[in-house]
Structure formats: C-alpha cells, structure tokens
Amino acid sequence: MQTGPYRITKGVALLLAGTMLASPLLAEEAAPAEEIVVTALKRGNVQLQDVPTSIAVVGQQQLEARGVAEFADFARSVAGLNFVDSGAGDKRYIIRGINAAGEAQTALYYDNIPMTGIGGAATSFGDRQPDLQLYDVQQIEVLRGPQGTLYGSNSQAGVIRFVTNKARVDRFEGSAQGELSTTRDGGTNYGIRGMVNVPIVQDVLAIRAVGYSEDYSGWVDNVYRNEKDFNDTKRDGARVSVTFKPDEQTNIVGQYFYQNLRTGGRAYTRPYDVTIGDNFFPAIGRRATSQIGRETRSDKINIFALTADRDLDWSTVTIAGSYFKRDVLDYVDNGPSFRYFEYLQRIGEFPPVTVPIGSLSYSPQKSKMWTIEARMATKFDGPLNGVGGIFYSNRDNDFETNTTVVDPISGRPDFSQPLISRRNFFDKTKDFAVFGELTYDITEQLSVTGGARWFRTKRDLVANTIVPFFGLGAPGTTSAKAKNEDVIFKGLVSYKVTSDVLLYAQYAEGYRSGGTNASSFSGVPPQYDPDTTANYEIGAKTSWAGGDVVFNVAAYRIDLKGLQSEQRFGPGGAFSGVGNIPGTAARSKGVEADLLVKPAPGLTVQFAGNYTDAKLAKDVPSLGAAALKGSNLAYVPKYNLSLSADQAFAISDKVDASVGFSASRTGKIETTYYTEFNQPSRGYTLVDTRARISWDQFKLDLFINNLFDKAAELTVFNTINDPHVVLANRPRTVGARLGIDF
C-alpha cells in the first residue's frame, strides 16, 4: 500500500479532477492570445522584443498545445539549448556550448527559487538538476549568454527560468487533464493533473493548488535478468501558492512544491560491440541492455518559498526567500568497472585483490539550500533607472556511497558479504553577493547599461573513508576548504532603429564557484578554483508586417578561463576528479536565430536554429590524448534546428480545431577527449504531430510523439563502467489528452 506524500498528492490530483469535471457551469470565456513579456530581468514585466539580449520564451498556450510535461519536451525547440541526458531528473543543461564538469554552468530557477543539482564523488552539482512537472506553468524563459551580474554563480552560460502561475485574488478558476497513451516496445502511460484557484477573501487573499500523478512505461529490456520494460518512471507531486494583497501596493506570495520521482532503471542501451581493456562487451540492441544489478532511483523534492513585493511609486522592492530540500537514492551497477579492474590486474596495474563478479553501489544523497535576495528596481520618469540588491545562500550536501557485492538473484546489495568500500562527505557552501545594473537613456533611441556583481564564496568539505576500497589504505578523515572573492562586470549598448527594430552589443561576464573533490584516491586534488566566462555579443530583434513576422538573431564569442573540467587519475585513469585548466582553455563561437511567421489566418510557423563552434583553445594533456587545441568540447553538437507549424481553424460556431507538427535536428556529438573512450553520437531527427478539438470549456488533444519511431542517441557514454552505452529516447508514443478549463 502507498502511504505518505504519494497518497496525498495522488489524492489531490484526483480530487481536483473530480471537482472540475463536476463544475462545468463555472466555465469562463477563453483567454485572449498570450502576450509575450519577460520577467527575468528583475525589473517587472518587459515586452520580449524590447529586451536587448538573447531570450527565448515558451508561453503557456504553446506548452499546453505541445503537451510539455518536463524539460526535455521543449528543450529541442530552443536555439542554443542542449542537455546531457542521463535519465529522469538527471540532466545537465548546456547553453551556447558551455559544458564542463563541476558546478552547473546554466542556472536553473523556478520563479525566484534557485535550484541545485546533486553532487557526486567530485561534487559535480551541475549534474542531476531538478526536473519538476510543468503543468500550469505561465511560461519558460531561456536567457542565453552569461547572466552573472543578476544571477550570480552558475549562470556563466545562461539561465533557464520556469515561471509558475500564482494564486489570483480576483477570480475562481481551475483546470483538469487526463492523459492516456501507449509506447511501442513498451506499455501504457497515464497522467492525471489538476489545478484549482480559490479566492478566500475577494481581491485580498487566494490559494492555488496543483496536483499530478503520472506513470510512464519503460521500453528497455534487461536480457540478463529477463526483465521487460524495466525503466518505467512514476512521478507524483503538488504545488501550492497563496497570494495575499493587503493593499494595492503590496503583494505577498507563499509557495510550496513537492515531487516524488521514481525510476525502475536508466534507459541505457548497448547497440554496439565494444572492447574496454581486453574485455569484450557484445551488442545487445537499441532497446536492450544487460545488467546484474537493479539501477533504481528515487528523488524527492520539497521547496518552500516566500516573495514580497512593495510598490513605492518610484521603485519596487522585492524580498524573496526559499528553502530547498532534496533526497535522492541511487543504485548503480558496477559490473563493467570490476571487469576492467581484472584487466588491470592481468597487466600488473591493480593490486591482487579478489574482485567479485558483480557489484552494486547505492548512494543516499541529501541536499538543502537556503536563499534570500533583497532588491530594488527603480522606475523614475527620467533617463536613469536600474536594479540592485544583495543575495545570500547556504547549501549543505550530504553524500554517501557504498560499494557492495550484488546478489545475482535479487539484483540488490548482498549484505551477507563485506562492503567493498564506504565513503561519505559533508559539503557546505556559503555565497554572499552585492549586485546592480544601471541603464541610462542617452536619447529615446540610444541606451547604455552597466552592471557589476561582487561575490564571496566559502566552501568546506569533510570526507570520511569508513571502508577503504578493496581494503587498500586505511580508514580516515580528510577535509578541504575553499574561499573565493571577485567582481564581474557587464556592459551593454542598445539602439532602437524603429519601434520594431532593436540592435544591441554587449559584453558580459559569468562565473561559477570553486569546489572540492571527495575521491577515494589520494592523487585527486582536494579542491578546484572558480572559472569565468567572457561573452562578446551583437544582436538584432525585429518585427515586421504588424507582428506577423518576428526575426531575432545574435552572434557571440565566449572565452572560458580557468575552466573546471573532469580529469582522470590513478591506475588506468580509473578515478576522476575536477580540476582547473589555466588561462583561456576553451572558446565558443556561434550564431542563433528565432523566426516566427503567420503567413495566413490561423497558421503559425516557427523556426529556431543555432550553429555552435565550441573548442579547446589550447592543448590540455590532462584531459586525454585527444584534448588538443581545436578539439570540440564534449557533448556539444555543432548545430540544432527546429521547425514547427500549427494551423487553427473553426469546425463550427462552437467547435474549433488545430493540427500541427514539430521537428528537430541535432548534430553529431563528441563525448570525451580520451581517444580510447571517444564514441561520438550520431545526429538524429525527431518529429511529433498533434491535433486538437476545442468546444465549450473542453479540449481534446491527439498526439503522436516520435512519429517515425527513431532510435535517437540522446547521450552516449563510453567509460569503464558504461562501455559504449546509449541513452535511448522513448519510442513512438500515440495518445490522447482530455482537458477542461473553468
């Protein structure tokens, strides 16, 4: 029997769905077409075409029409945005080709709440960033290029911001949605979602609640265990916001997020023969793998936030605080690694210890983060305006890894056998910053902006070796400290040629804080320093034909200095850690474009594309034999293209309909600088189709995702523990969604 938050959130979703389906008489008229505004500049609402920087916005209508439930559902439609996909809730976001190990390089926000990934042995918090369900989200904003002055650490490539709908004090409204689909080579998928907004005191106090429960079938078979479709995913959650408006000048919003994500295993497949050392691993199939251990995963997130805004006529003061808590339990099969250790023994590079046939690691991880930001955005009538404030965060991360002999029957740890290793670490990071940006309008057309951020970061790590790896070495405790302080800058010039044409040029810096390693191998450096980005960019934002044609383009060059990167140490490079590469280690150059065209009544066509040339700027032997000047950065395709078209039409006076498709093309991707491990992924094209019928307050969506059943290589890994495995995409999925608004 399911207990606790799972039952609560599933019950909330069912209750909301039942309430709304039973209340058709409360329906309101359809909302007008969405107006695209941006809130990410922390200066209130600004029209997208008036913002002199490269931003992509995906609005609520588009999210609903495309059935977007999570990050991967929309990412391929945004120029310059990529991700390393390791499964549900385990992604690393990449903007403009900026990608390396260590802390995140793309900041992730839900409203005013900064998110953090879960670290590993190298405290690589850029991985495993949260992936919350996106029902009842107002819009998604993707800021491309460094945003260090306003968003601080980890925004050196850009920012992804999910803006949720808050409780509305002026109206009662709600929605519900049920989804049913089937996946080829998999099974049946379902999702139920609901939202209700209730004013408690009209125009003063309101509550908005969202609930959801989703169950997605697996499609990968484990031939060793004779398990079909083992990589299923279940996700349940709730989101609550309370808005309090004591007067016209004050707005206070309290929020709570909860999500429980469980997976039966990673969608790692082995479609190719591969040899690591002298160990041969035969191809299994494009939707199959072979593992002794069960790689299940659970991921629970709880978030509390409070934001207060006060209008002072000449400015708006905002105070935003949040508490983020995440608990993850990972199981990872170590079988291939242990075969590699046997190979090293055969060539005399690993001690003569007894290596078991199968091994499984289980890693409980807990992350907590408190943040508070106080800022003021002016709105003078004169030419000078700006935003400034202070920021503080305190992050605690507890990580434990236990390496065990695996029970071949259950696929779980065999606790009757001694532990192979056990380590834990306690990592604390404190960040304090003062920031500001000022804009001066020289004329009605010409404006200049300058910004800066001073930051100070402190980090402490305590690592305990409780059971040394294979008994090599002795138990003990190590500690490391890091302290960094610096200032980064931004400069921007914009020129409004006409009311529909905006040109700009900018220089912007970004950074991410240094960190600590917690490897069991003593040769891995205990800490690494911050790295920085310097962005040189020009762009144009244009509208034509009364807004029926919108074309935005930007060209950029980003220099990465002191780059944090994963480096290998120890016998055969079996141990990894994060280190710095001195000087300008890498450079990313590229161009990105967004085009929207409405060529006929009801027809909307959108195109997004980018070309990215992200390369090492010098030889870096510590990264591997192939890490030479001019080598492509790992996991960065040269190009991404997307095209979509939607045609809306009326069937009758009371029934509307639409049909559409989305297609994306991702180029080939290099995976590592180690020649013996580099297995580039093939480029791929994915196509989705959709149709909608709307009547009264109802909407029926029919969809086919992955229309041509393409087995795309989303991410390729080739390591001693993951020998040429491919993270597979979901096969062709055909389904329907029925929704109601009231």
UniProtKB/TrEMBL annotation:
PROSITE patterns, A to Z: TONB_DEPENDENT_REC_3
SUPFAM superfamilies: Porins (SSF56935)
Protein name: TonB-dependent receptor
GO biological process: iron ion transport
Gene3D superfamilies per the UniProt record, alphabetical: TonB-dependent receptor, beta-barrel domain
Record domain TonB-dependent receptor plug: where: 48-159
PANTHER family, per the entry: FERRICHROME IRON RECEPTOR-RELATED, TONB-DEPENDENT OUTER MEMBRANE RECEPTOR
Membrane topology field: Multi-pass membrane protein
Subcellular location: Cell outer membrane
A GO term from the CC aspect: cell outer membrane
InterPro entries named among the record's database cross-references: Beta-barrel_TonB (IPR000531), Beta-barrel_TonB_sf (IPR036942), Plug_dom (IPR012910), TonB-dep_rcpt-like (IPR039426)
Coiled-coil features, chain-numbered ranges: none
Similarity comment: Belongs to the TonB-dependent receptor family.
Chief place where the protein resides: membrane
Family annotation (Pfam families): Plug (PF07715), TonB_dep_Rec_b-barrel (PF00593)
Keywords: Cell outer membrane, Ion transport, Iron, Iron transport, Membrane, Receptor, Signal, TonB box, Transmembrane, Transmembrane beta strand, Transport
Signal peptide: 1-27
Keyword Zinc: no
Domain named TonB-dependent receptor-like beta-barrel: residues: 258-707
